[in-house]
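User: I'm writing a tutorial on reading structure tokens. Could you give me a worked example: one chain, its sequence, then its tokens, then a sentence or two explaining what the tokens reveal?
Assistant: Sure. Here is the example chain.
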Amino acid sequence: MSTLRSTFGDTLQENIPLKGYTVARIGGPADALIIIRSADELVQTADKLWKAEIPFILVGGGSNVLVSDKGVRGVVIINQARHVKFDLQSNPPQVTAESGVTPNTISQRAARLGLSGFEWAASLPGSLGGAVYGNAGAFGGDIAGNLISLEIFHRQHGRRVWSLEKMAYGYRTSVLKREHTPAVILSAKLALHAGESQTIRTLMEQNSKRRRESQPAGASMGSMFKNPVGDKAGRLIEAAGLKGTRIGNSEISSKHANFFINHGKTSAQDMKALIELAQKTVAEKFGVNLELEVELIGEW
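And here are its predicted structure tokens:
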């Protein structure tokens, strides 16, 4: 901690509960927390920590993560780098956005400019960096369908621009996620196309309505499990008789069984027990091993 204090000064916060930085409102304290507000700040912060051999975790919007009750040993960087720039002269039109911005923000701004192709991301939680890292998608679209390139900062190789092909995308995964590459995502360039603002807004409103109607309200991490090939995780969990099951204040939603809800002061351990119950029961009943879409963070 003395190294961190001397390196980061007043920008360093200590023993900060992470539940305030996660969508599920769950998580114990980080030993140290640093908030960055630009891609350049992210580069500088990551570089200093790597050189000091101090481990860190990067958190954007805080969706798709479950932070342990014991919290995180080391540093958590909160990514609030949110600069967005549209290029209307390129063919196709493009947007370059820093990794801390929400996909929803990009979709809303694109709609105002009459740019289509990113309507699927309206009301999507989390950050662009997380979406690029995990190939987020909804309503027939995904990041792989929009990405032109991204800029990363690699521990050994510095700042690099990667192509879409370099990401080797699969269903809710990328080479960065699969191989735990020592790199942070700085920004992404996305392809859009010209459209009519009202038509774009109508589709976005329809998508947002579908999300509200099919997904539960309340604090959750988003989809808990990846959909198995040819099936739906929610259908399997419901068929296993687990819809509405609770452990403590954690519940498998009675509206959509692939969403696990925090009903207030839920412990990460109770949530993890519910995850393990769903995996065990579905495996026993149907022979299907449910793979987490959510990442477990911290000391378990």
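What the tokens reveal: The longest helix spans residues 268-286. The mean pLDDT is 95.
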